[in-house]
Amino acid sequence: GARHRKLGAGSGWRRERSGASRRSGEGFSAPGEGGKGEPSMLGTLRSEDCGYELQVRASWFRLEDYYRKAMNYSLMIIFTVPAQIYLLVKQTEHSGTQAGMAKISLACVGWQAVLDSYQCLMHLTAGIIVETLFHSFSTAAFFQFTLFSVFEMRVLLQIWKSRRPNSEQNWLEIRRDLSALYSRFYGGFLLGFVIMYWCANSPWFIALLCNSYWLPQIAWSAWHNAKKPLMPAYVLGTSAIRLLVPLYVFGCPDNFVRVKPQFWVCWLLVIWVAAQVTALAAQHVFGPRCFIPDAYLPEVYDYHRRVEPEVLAGAGAGDEECGEAGGVDCVICMNAVDAKAPRERMVTPCNHFFHQECLERWMEVKMECPTCRGALPPL
């Protein structure tokens, strides 16, 4: 239990090993010196003049091991981001029509874009601070920048455009809409920073909030009765890939950020994401409103509704604004429609008649009336 005294200018600082260290003889251990466990240093800094005491508990690590772990992490990001891009492109092809894009929640894709922008910023900052890791982390940041700034923003624009099918906008109106879209994105970006600042002492809550990106899609599908908006492969693949980073941070004992494993957080995240995926799967199989009571849902337009006699007397003519006249013909297939058979025909809010099969196929491409281009409610 050696005691060392350092004479300074006007104050005497005394450094000594703690009592536990004196008894065990393990006050200081270094690699290669037979120390057990992680190399560490325990001790006390005490000022006899001021009466202050500072407990010291330090540990060290090999920089080579740290760089190796960081490189492995960056390689994981570099290889998983192209998989995310592939899944997103396949989902875009699956929902390539106006009606398909309108089924996707804007907040769901925007949530994921904000998460990718956070990771891009963190990786770029880490690469700038640690010069040795610049190349690997800047590459990972570049991949994620491409993901959110090119692919995800493109999907956001397509969804935004699908909500305005009939708008003949001039350049000023287009700029206004684009400004509104980007304002929402950057507003969510800044709001996320505020939430992370206030919840800095609860990283598990931040991770839980970041992995709640399917909730807007679940709510959107239920509210708008959007049937099968997302591919199952996209949902499963995206969920698995986005879980890799939090599971690495909270579950890997040798993670390069030196966070102690918290396996309960890992289980919580897996169960939470699995619950969201299960809800999406139930909506995909049993319908978007399968688990919500009808009393809490908005009224759905009935395409097989009864039609007023004056409309039938007009032989399926449209409203006064459209000025249509003539027989009850389906303008999609150009064949006659039995307007008096509600189960075999469909009538739009603008009183235009179509075969059920024809209009359902049409609405998979466009959510507008084939006759007057009026907006159509979802089925």
From TrEMBL:
It comes from the Eukaryota. GO terms for biological process: proteasome-mediated ubiquitin-dependent protein catabolic process. It is a multi-pass membrane protein. InterPro entries: DUF2921 (IPR021319), HRD1_E3_ubiq-ligases (IPR050731), Znf_RING (IPR001841), Znf_RING-CH (IPR011016), Znf_RING/FYVE/PHD (IPR013083). Residues 13-25 have a biased composition (Basic and acidic residues). It is an enzyme of class 2 (transferase). Pfam families: DUF2921, zf-RING_2. Pathway: Protein modification; protein ubiquitination. Its main location: membrane. Residues 330-373 form the RING-type domain. The chain crosses the membrane at residues 70-89, 181-198, 230-250, 262-282. GO terms for cellular component: endomembrane system. Keywords: Membrane, Metal-binding, Signal, Transferase, Transmembrane, Transmembrane helix, Ubl conjugation pathway, Zinc, Zinc-finger. This is RING-type E3 ubiquitin transferase. It comes from Micromonas pusilla (Picoplanktonic green alga). The lineage of its organism: Eukaryota, Viridiplantae, Chlorophyta, Mamiellophyceae, Mamiellales.
